[in-house]
Every structure is written in C-alpha cells, then in structure tokens.
Amino acid sequence: MKPKYYLPLAAGIISVAVIMAGCVKQPLDTAPVGNYTTQNFWRDQTDVLAGIAGIYNIMFQEDGVGHGNYVFEDQSDDISVDGDHADYWRIESFNPLASDYQIRTTWIFAYEQIARANNAIIYVPQVPVMDEAIRNRSLGEAYFLRAHAYYTLQTIYGEVPLILEENVLNGEYNQPKKTEEEVRVQIEADLLKAADLLPETYGGEDKGRVHKGAAWALLTKLYMTWEKLDKAQEYGQKVITNANYALAPEYSDNFIVDKQINNSEILFGIWSKDGFGSAVANIYFTNRAWGGWGFHHPTQNFVDAFEAGDTKRKEATVLAVGDSIPNQNQMIEISDKDAYQMFAGKEGQLTGRMLPSQSPTGYSIRKYTGFKADGSGLDFSIKQPLLRTADIYLLVAEAKIRTSGPGAGDAEINVVRKRAGLGEISGATFTDLVHERRVELGGENVRHFDLLRWDKKQLVNLDTIVNKPKAASPLQPYNGTVIVPARTFTRPKNYYQPIPQSIVDQSKGIITQNPNY
Amino acid sequence: MKKKKGLLLMLSLLFACAMYAQKTVTGTVSDSTGAKLQGVSIYVAGTSTGTASGLDGTFSLSVPSGATRLEFSLVGFQTKTVDISSGTSFDVTLSAAAGALTDVVVVGYGTQRKRDVTGTISSVKGDDFKNLPVSNAAQALQGRAAGVNIVRSDGSPGSVPTIRIRGTGTINSADPLVVIDGVPAGSLNDVNPNDIASIEVLKDASSSAIYGTRAANGVVLVTTKKGNFGEQLKVSLNGYTGSSKAIKYLDVLTAPDLATLKKEAFTNDGLLVSGIWNDPNYATQRTDWQRALIGTGKTKNVDFAVRGGNEKSTYSFSGNYYDEKGMIVNTYFKRYSARINSEHKFLKIFKLGENFLYSTTNGNSTDTRSTQTGTVWSALRFNPAIPVYNEDGSWGTSKADNELGDINNPVFTAASPDVRNRTNNLLTNAYLQVDIVKGLSVKANIGYSSSTFRGYTFNPAEPNQTRSIPLASLSQGQNESSSLLEEYTLTYSNVFAKSHSVNFTGGYSAQNFEGSYFNAWRNGYDDPSDPLRNLNNGNPAYQFNNGSRNIKSGLASYFGRLNYGYKNRYLLTVTMRADGSSKFPKNKQWGYFPAFSAGWRISDEDFFKNSVSFINELKLSGGWGQLGNQAVPDLQYLAILGTGLNYNFGNSPAQGAGVISLSNPAITWERAEMTNISLEFALLQNRLTGTLTWFNKNTKDMLIPYSIVETYGIAGIPNQNIGTLNNKGIEAELNYQNRVGEFTYSIGANASFIKNKVTLLYGDEKNYIGSAIYGRQLLETSRTYEGQPISSFYGFKTNGLYQNQKEIDDDANIANDGNKANIKPGDVRFVDQNGDGVINDQDRVYLGNPNPKVVYGINGSAGFKHFDLSFSFAGVSGVSLYNADRVAGLDATGVFNWYEEQLNRWHGEGTSNTVPRLTRRNPNNNYRSSDMWIEDGSYLALKNITLGYTFSNLKVSGFQLPQARIYVSCFNAFYLTGYNGFTPELGYTDGNRQRGVDVAQYPSARTFTVGASLNF
Question: Exposed, middle or buried: residue B449 (CB in 10 Å: 0-12, 13-18, 19+)?
C-alpha cells in the first residue's frame, strides 16, 4: 500500500471509532434500579399494606420494643438483671448514664416507629385508588402505632420532642422537648383518631393488627398516667364490656403459642412467627441451658407476692428449680453444684428439669419460654402480649377505688381473680389492687411503671420498695442470698431515664437533659 | 497450538546453538546520549565468562560454544541482554536505570521522561518486590515509596491492605484509583506481583488530574511486563514455598489462676462465689486456646512467563498458581491467574493491542472482628480448663455454666464451616492507535472488567455449643459486577523553533458500572455429608432467598493536558477537566477541576553547569490543583424505601416496607485541593538521587452525613457537602547505589511526615462522626471531630488507681459525684475535666491519634559474584493505638478468661496503680473508654530479607542449563515495638472512622520461604 492511501484509511477508521463512540450509553442517566423511592412508592393498596406492615416491623427490634424496653422493669423489685450488659446493671441500680446503650436504642427505635407511622399518615390519604375500608384501617393503625411510640417515650423519658407530619415534610428534626401535657395531648388525639378509624375486630388472617379495643386500652393507660381517672374509666369500660375483648378462658392461654392467635384478651402484642421475624424476649428470659441467655430472673420478693392458692398464675409466670416445661428436651447432667432440693444425691444423672445452676435466684420468667413440638428448641412463634384486657380490668378497678374508695373496684378485680381460680374478695383496697396488678401482670413490663405513677401521687413509697434488697430463693443452694443490695431512688431524677447524650449533643442546646443527669 | 510449536522450535534452536564453535565478540557500549561507558560488566548469559568495557567503551570477549546472549550491566543503567547468535560485532546502548532523573515513568495516558515531570510521582520497579510471599503487590509496596502508607487491617490469607496516599484524605472512601495497564478498574489482588514491571504512584493534583474523576486520593498505575519489539523469546519459571507462624502469642491466665482470681472478684463484692470456681475440674489447665487455634501456615507459588516479539508484534503470556493456607485452621486463599497481551504494528501508522487478565480465587477467612464469634477474640477468652475435644471426640463446650461465657469453642468455630468463596475476575482492554501525521495521533481504548463472586458456606449442626446451631445450614450466593469503559484521546507533540516543546493530550472518557446479586439458604439437612450438601436437600420449611440488581452508576469526563517545555529547562503542565457523575442529581452532576504545575531544571542552566559540577541534576517544581471525589453511595438525592421490613398477621408473614434512607437533593462533588513544591536532585555521577516534597492537601465540601438529631429514627442519613479536612507534610526519598569491584550495592530510604486535621465539621466539638461501638464494654473508641485528626481516640483521662479510702474521700474529681459511695480502693481515678466534681460523659477528651506522624522505609540490596541480598524495613512513628482487646482481657465483670497481667491487679494498698481491683459489679465503670488502653504504636519491622544465589554456566552432559537462582527469604522477620498486642499493624475497623483499634484481628505471620527461578 502506498503512503497516499494512509490518510483516507486513517480517516475511515477514525469515523468507525466515532460511530463506536458512545458504547457506554448515557453514563450519567441512571435510573434507580432495584430500589423504591418516595417517588415510586405509595402507588396502590399493596404499597399501603406493605407500608403499614413496615411500622409493625419495628416491634421486633431486639433493643427496642422486642426486648430492650423490658430492661426498665429491672428497676422494679420483681426481676433482676444477670449477664454481661453493664448498662442493664446501671439501669437496675437507678444509675444509668446518658451515654448508655439501652438509653439510646429505646429512644431511636421509638422515633423510627414514629417516622414510619408519619410516612403512612402523610402518604396513605394520597393513594389514588384503594379499598376505602382498608385505607381507613391503615390510617388508624398508623395513628395507633405513632401514639404507642410516644406513650413509650413519655413514660420512659418524660418530656420528649414531637415529630409530626409537617416536621417530616420540612426535614425539621431538631425540635425542643414538649411538656408532658403536650405530649399526652398528642397521644390522646392520635388514639382517638385511631379508635375512630379502626375496626372492632378482625378475621383470622388479620389477627395481630390493632383494633378499636387496642386504641381504647392504650387510652385507658394514658389517662391513668395522666391522672384522668374519669376518662380512664370511660375508655376502660369500652374494653371490658365488649365481648370481642373478653378475657381468655385460662390465664396461661395468653402465653402459649397455640392459644395466642385467636386470643381476644391480647389487645396488642408482638406477632412473632418462627423463621419469619420475631421479637426475642424468649432468648433474653429463657435460661442458658435451655437455649436462652437468662438476662432477667424473678426475685424471691416477687414470688412471695403470690397468694397461697394462686397457682395458675404463679405457674404460668414463674419457673422454679425442679420445674419442667413441655417439649424442652435438653437433658443436662446434674453436677455437684446442682445437687440440692430434688436433685440431692443425683449427681451425674440427666434431667430435663430446671437446675439450680440455671438461675442465680432459683427462678425464671416463664411467660416468653416455649419449645417447638418437633424438639428443635425455643419456639420463636411465641407472641409477646403488650396490652391485655386483664390490665384494663384492673385499671378500671384502680380508677374506681381511687375515686370512690375501697370496694368500688371489686367487680373488676373479681373477674380477674375468678379466671385465676381464686376466690372473690370484697371491699378491695388500693393495696389489694396493687397486689393484684403485680401478680396478674408479672414479667410484662408493667410493675415499675405502675410504681412510678403511684409514687408521684404518693400512693406508694418507692423508697420502702427499693430499700429492700432483691433476694434469691430461701432454698439451698441459694439460702436467700442478696442478689441486688438495697438501692436508692432519687426524686425527681429516677422518675425518668436520661435523654440519650447523643441527642443532647446533636441538638446543640435545643433538647436539654433531664433534671439531675 | 501455534504458540506451542513456536516454543518447541525455540527450544531446539537453543540446543542447536550448543554445537557452534567458540567465537570472539567485540563492540562498544554507550549511553543514550552516545557517551561511551567504561566498566560495564559483560557476561555470557548464565555463565561466569565475562569481561568489562574499557575507557573508550570497547570490549572484546571470547564466548564459549553454545552462548547466544550477552548481558551488559552497569550501576545506574538497566541491564541489557543482546542476542549474539547472528554476528560478532555489536554496538550496545544502555539506558539509565530506575531512580535516575533520566528514567522514563508512566504517567496517565502515556509516558514521560522523569526529568520532564513536574508533578510528584513515586516509582517502584517490580524487580524490587518479586517473590515475596504475598498475594498482592500492595503488601509488597510497604515502605517503598514516600507518602504511600500501606495499612494491613488483617493478616488473613488473601486480605488486601489499604493504601493511603498523603494521609487519609476524606472520611469517605480514601482509596486511590488503581489503573492496571490503562484500565481504571480491578484491584491489586488480581495481578500476580511477579507479573508487574513497575508501579507508579501519582501523588499530586497535577499528575493525578488526568484520571480526575476518581483520583482525589491518588492514582496507582500498574504496568505489567510485556514483550518488546525485536526481542527473542524468553521463558521464565519461578516457584517458592513458605511456612508461616505467629510472631507472638499473648499471655493469658491458666485455669488454676483464673479460678483463684474469679473467686476474688465475687468475694470483693460480697457476692456468693459461683459454684464452678470451687470445682476442681475448672481449676485444671487443659488447653492453650491461642496455640490450638493459630498454628502453622503454608504458602506455595508457581508462575511462568513467555515473552518476546518481532519487528511488527510483541507478545506476553504468563500464568500463576498461588496457594496460601493461613495460620488459623481452615483459612486459605488460592489464586489461578493468566495474563495475555500483545501489540501489533501494521500499515505503518496503526498500532493495535490488547490486555487480557483472568483470575479465579477461592478462599475462606475466619471472622476475627466480632466479640461473639471472633475466633482470635474467643481463643483469648475461652476457659482454659475446657478441652478442645471431649474424651468422646465431641467438641469441648462452655455450656456447663454461665460463668464460662456465652461463646463457642473457637477451634470449633474456625474449623467446622465449609466455606468456598470463589471470585472470578476478568480485566481486559483493546486499543487502536493511529499516527495520522508525525506528532499527531488518536487512540481509542475500550475496556471491560467483570467480577463474579460465588459464596458457599455450610455449617453443620452443633447442639452442644453455648450458641448452639440446631440445624445444619447451607447458604449460597452470587454477586456480579461489571464495568465498561471507553476512552478516546488525541495526542499532539512537537518542538517549535528547537526550543519550544509542546505535548497535548485531550479526550473523552465514559465508564459505567452495574451488577446484581442473589443469595439463598436452607437449614436442616438429614445427611450433612459433602456429596449431599445441596440447597435442594435442605428443609424447605427453613429457607430464604433474596436478590436484586445493583444501582447503575456512571462517569463521564472531558479532559485536556498541555505540557510545555522551553529549552528543556522551563516546564509547565496545565490540566483542565469537566467531570460528571451519576451519583448526583441532574443539576449537580458536573464539576470542573483545574490543575497546574511548573518545573525549573536548574542543573541545565549554564550558570549552574559551570559552577556546580558535583550536582548532576537539580529540578525545582511546584503545582496546585483540584480533583473531585464522588466515592459515596448512589441515589442519595432520593429517599429510598427498603423492603423486607416484614411482619406477621394471623398465621402468615406479611411483606413490609419503609424509608431506609433520607434524601439530600443538593449533593455534589467533594473537592481535594492540593499544593506542592518539590526539589529533585542527583549527585555524584547520579549515584545519589533524592526528592524532597512539601505538600498541603485540603479536602473541601467533604461529603459527610449531615448533623441531624436522632428524632428521625434509624434511617440512613445522606451526605452533605460540609466538611473540610487537611493533610499536610513533607516527603523525602533518597537512594544511593554504587559498585566496588564485584560488589554492588544500593540503599534507599524514604519517609513522609504527615499532619492530619479535621478543620471544619459541624461547628462544635460535641457533634462528631462516630464510629462502631466495640465489644462487651460498648467502647466508643474513636470519633472524628473538629480540630483533631480523623478518627481520634476519645474517652476519659485517668490518674492511676485509688489506693485507700482517704484518697477517695479527698478526691476533688468526685467531690459531688453521686456514685462516690460505691467507689472503692483499687478503682480507677478518672479525671474530672470540667471541674464539676462529677465524673460523667462531659469529662471525655481527645486521647490520641491513630494516624502515624511519620511513615518510613529503608530498602537495600547488595550483590557479590553469585550472591544477592536484599532487605526492606518499614516503620511508623508518632502513632497511638487503642488496645481494646486488653479491656476485655482485664474486665473483671466479664465471664471470660483474662490476661496473665490480671495477676498484678490491685489487691491492697500499693499493689498496683494500673490494673484495677477485681469486681463483678464494677460500680466505678473501670473499663470505660480511657487512656488506660492507649499505647504507643510505633514500630520498625524488617518486612523482608532475601538471600539468593545464581548458578551460571551449569552444564549437564555438555548441555548448557538455563540460568537458575535459588533463594531463601523471611517476610515479617521481626518488629521492634513497645506495643503489647499481637501486632502494631492494626489498620481500619470501621472504614476511615476507626483506625488503630486492637480487636484481636487475624495476626500477622512471620513467613520463611525458599524458592527457585529459571530463565531460558
């Protein structure tokens, strides 16, 4: 080839190259492949149902509703902390640090619940076409779950910021704390809307969704902490007089997987399903030898509170040394340190019963412990009840006693006692009511919040309760050892937990620390 | 097939040569300027027959029969091999060797004489690090280039160290761009280090600017070995094998001592001693868990290369097998790789070429980060009275008692999974260059890279461990990613009026990235034996599957670079680029980044030449420029909803979704702005060369999560362009090489002094970028905040231990502290910083800097007759480390084994001022983040020392054997350090947010290797 052909040839090849150019097509024009964004979600009913399920999903959070929030119950006299979470120890001893892990996680998961609910409240009304009944129900669920998160925040931290729809739309998250009154007004408003929008009950496939009864029940609890006893009675009556929310036939039905799904008494609970998402109270409350981690153990103080004949409730609530539980198939060798009580002289034998080495107090909470029938260990389908009708019966009774004096709550208390297989009482006093709530709701994260609101009204004196050491079983090998020595409750500091330090720092002075922290 | 025939032909030719009669070869040797070279050693390749050139550069040598090649070598010049089979007289030109300013260095889209470079580039030759027992070249780079810090975060087989050029430039990805043979993709793990001809590190804005879109953290240009035009075929074979052992084990308590101290912890708190500590079974020493877990590793490497060329074409073909078994049981990394490239000239003006690299790796690396399943962490904590195996052959377990901790037998954890993580990587490009007229050429380059990861993990059921595995599980997954690149460049170079040299390179490049993944698992296998480990055989009641396409992203750039030189003395480089990135919203996609640099070759000035004769080269250069960084997650300008936030209703699962990240519609480019001034020199006939550089790098508009109060929940926070980070410092490189008779030697030293500071963040000290909370003590070890270096250590200052009650009563630090009554002698005295007499989180302060102030290396080599010796030291100084593992090793509340140091705990006045009393309840929170855990992390390590011997002129039955070299070497021979953990090389544990925190990482190994190389 002669040199004069090179130039045209080069030109030809360059043109081919230029045509080829652009094999990387529109490199900057990328679509959000594989992702939903707020631009392409909330289109139809399917999206709405998913968006609502996404709010409930936060119930599974290990360090929030699913278990972490139960840690505050360790401040009561009913249960005691074990294990290696130093922040739990500090919380139990009324000395939490603002920087403690659990102090922050309870906060952020509650606000995440609020964030997801806020999105639903903003976008569900904008979905163009969907079943209106489901639209209403979905909005009701979102209002309820937002209220539930604020109720959690209010009872644990006291004054907290309110993040509502307009804050989300404007991206304004650095909001000052609102007074307890303002927060309660907001919770009340949400629950009233929820009660209006929600159905009274659900078909089998929707059990686990909140209904009117749940909204009324949470209103009852709100009014009690708000000291609005009349309102509490009004909404409590709506629950306890409605057959859809009747007590379960047996107390233990509330804590056995097979009896939980269609249980009218569980007004609101965490709907775990083995393999598909679950909360983890079962791991935290079940002892290690049986596959849990044994973080909280009931005290002798609590066990002593049961009346002599109160066996149904005691057995459903507390496991003691020597007890067994269906489908628990771990056979454990009895060691020297276990050879007490019924195991005395049985070293080296195998047992599936609870051994002394499984608890520092001699007891475990049983309510979250269940085993799968196929022998494959802990059942993660166990539901965690968060609101039970029995609680509402006793709140109505409390409101009546405190309004009209001893005996005024007998009817409600006796419904609960009767189901427990106990005799009726008459002329029940506030002290009787305190006792009844303690044993009926033991291990359900109720006792300490009751004590706090009563102490504020000087109905009980928390000093006399926390001054008593937490003790182990009087039997061998425990011999009544002190598990937690006498503690000091400081007012008003210990009415609430500290605001997480990270929040105070991030807010640059907008959100202030709680008193005395 | 054709290649094979060619190979056979060449081999027979080689043997045929043996029959030629002896002949005399003569000629002259000169340098590239034509100056005659004296003292060049000239040897018949592979023999000891040789001579040296005379004063006038001439030589004459009688070569034996069979000799086909002569090797010419001289200090300061590249060794050259000349084919003498076709004649008896040769004029040989030697080109200057690495290090001299006359050398040619690879720059973006081309090469440049080092003397003309106005930016700062460090160059390392492949020969300097060949045959080190490492899976990738980054490890081999350690200590070899000033301003380049190679940070190992993990000693596991196949782990890739982090490269930091001129400090950590951003809180986001601060990794440099790796360009392999012109394709900006891939990682250094893909390339056999023995295939690398040179690595150039572009450090300043001006030289990196040409790769601007991803060059803000520097560029590492890897050039692999290629054939040369007109070079006869060369075959090389190489193999080594090595054995690795832990450099160090930590001292932990034996079972009897542990039981004694555990009792003391209970008794100190007035608690009932847990029964297990009175059980003689748990006071019996059975297992040294560290030695049970960490044993001997083995490394094997074999590679070969065939390279050559004729007038029109060059070719190179190489292959590699690398097999590393880690010190920890069941950890391994294997790589098979092949590399082909060729280049062809045709029709005088066209040049066509390609590079093709394929590698497949397989590996398993045990978790050594977790404080639950981390194997090294568990080995330090697991009770020494528990046997590895019980008498019945089952795994020893901690299940018997809470006091033994909630962790599994670490040997079980490491050994039981069957893990095969395979990655296939393809990196290829093809280019066509057209030289249109003299000085003007255009080039098109199309590159494609893809990576396919296939994971396979089988865990057998194990009901008898504390964290039991009730069902056997198999999980499999696949992750694919690929990238397509196109580049069109035009180059024009010319010299006008003999003194104005101009070189212009301009072009367009675009690259896109996409990928996808899926994974699935099933639990429950009736027969867990290997042949039946298929997903299909798992129980469908326990299954999961998931998958998605990745977000597509893309980059596009227009760029131009002009080099101008006046009389070779005054040099100027101007670069301008416009870069677009799909990571940003439409109106924020484009950024414009200029860079300038200029140089003055003082040594070429007449006044200098005439007056300063001992200085051969002297150049002053300086530059300023801006580069963009967009290495942040995609789609941050949109709020993203995540699926999988599921719940259950009735008895059925329900799909759930929710916002998982908030949006920032204003997100745009982060900018790195760099200024530097350099002085380069060569003295004493180029024997001593050096560079001294001052630089100042400001990262502006740094993309960091905006400060938001956590009342929004847990969604991801998008980045905002708010921070400013500064790195400034000095780099120095010095090399000396010389020859005394037959003894040749060279020594080089480099150091960089860097100061890192976050100059702007959220406007106050309280708001910071946090980092992962570590361990059972929930330690906040590190935070990044204004006025301090990135990832500074943070916590309480301490002042010894309280020795008696009076010290507590009188201590002003806790005068008003509500916790005072609970504090006892033997507890830590924390320092009250704000003077309120209360110890709380407000008393936490800056505790130390994990970014070394000085990073340095010393390298040397020497040769005498057949022997060669080389060594390489690497060191850092002015650095703090956070010994977080020691916190776990002493934490008396923990239900684990402790460090032997616990024997020195406080147990009465004056017994200790450093190790607190044993307390289960720990009311003073002795183990919070404090300066008690901060240690000096300076070290000097002999990273490598190698001794080799070259056989030449070996004959078997009269046949000349190929040149052979055997060598022994030791990698990580020793560390000089005061640090108490396994290794002072700790690396990163949470991106750039946490560095230098000892979490019981996979320790570094000391490796001894022996190897041999053959060259035909």
Answer: buried
Of the CA atoms within 13 Å of residue A5, those in its CB half-sphere come to 5
Report CB contact under 8 Å: A108, B713. yes
Helix axes A212-225, A229-240, angle to 10 degrees: 150
Nearest beta carbon to residue B657 from set A54, A84, A293: A54
CB contact under 8 A, A38 and B549: no
* CA–CA distance, B224 with B197 (Å, rounded to integer): 5
The candidate with the shortest Cα–Cα distance to B69, out of B55, B80, B53, is B80
Opening angle at CA B945, ends B940 and B947, nearest 5: 160
Distance CA A161, CA A108 (A): 12
Q: How far, in Å, CA of A200 to CA of A214, rounded? A: 9
Residue of A nearest to B634 (CA): A32
Size of chain A, expressed as the number of residues it contains: 517
Q: Name the nearest CA neighbour of A451 among A85, A213, A94, A62.
A: A94
Helix (H, G, I), strand (E, B) or coil at A237: helix
CB contact under 8 A, B399 and A114: no
Which residue(s) pair with B500 in the sheet?
B496, B566
- Between the two ends of chain B, the Cα-to-Cα distance in Å is 20
Give the span between the Cα atoms of B35 and B172, in whole angstroms: 52
Cβ contact, residue pair A357, B275, below 8 Å: yes
Query: Is the Cβ–Cβ distance between B334 and B323 less than 8 Å?
Result: yes
Of the ranges B8-12, B207-211, B395-399, the best mean pLDDT one: B395-399
Measure Cα distances from B632 to B76, B552, B713, B975 in Å.
45, 13, 22, 36
Please give the DSSP secondary-structure letter assigned to residue B532: G
In order of start, what are the domains of chain A with their CATH numbers? 45-198+500-506 (1.25.40.390)
Q: Which two tokens stand for residue B495?
A: 């010299």
Contact between A473 and A300 (Cβ < 8 Å): yes
Alpha-carbon span B166 to A71, nearest angstrom:
48
Are B838 and B814 within 8 A, CB to CB? Answer: yes
The letter for the amino acid at A312 is K
Give the pLDDT confidence score for residue B866 in this predicted structure. Answer: 87
Residue B599 corresponds to which tokens in the numbers above? 């140089």
Q: What gap in Å lies between CA B885 and CA B889, rounded to an integer? A: 6
Residue B170 Cα distances to A352, A438, B93, angstroms: 57, 56, 47
Q: Chain A 38-67, CB below 8 Å of chain B: which residues?
A: 38-39, 41, 47, 49-57, 59-60
pLDDT band at A15 (very low <50, low <70, confident <90, very high): low
- How does strand B121-125 pair with strand B719-740? unpaired
**Predicted confidence band at A356 (pLDDT cuts at 50, 70, 90)?**
very high
Of A56, A116, A291, the CB nearest to B468: A291
- With beta carbons under 8 A apart, name residues in chain A contacting B511: 24, 27
Find the DSSP H helices in A294-333.
300-303, 311-317
Q: Which domains does chain B have, with CATH numbers?
A: 2-95 (2.60.40.1120), 635-665 (no CATH)
Instruction: Evaluate if pTM is beyond 0.90.
Output: no
Both tokens of A248, joined, read: 């379960």
Q: How many Å apart are CA A269 and CA B195, to the nearest integer?
A: 63
The tokens of B340 are what?
């082909």
- Take residue B785 and report the two structure tokens written for it: 């905040």
3-state helix, strand, coil in chain B (%, to 5): 15, 50, 40
Helix (H, G, I), strand (E, B) or coil at B701: strand
DSSP state of A139: H
Question: Could you give phi then psi for residue A215, rounded to 5 degrees?
Answer: -65, -45
pLDDT range class, residue B103, cuts 50, 70, 90? low
Is B641 close to A35, i.e. CB distance below 8 A?
yes
Retrieve residue B895's tokens: 């239900």
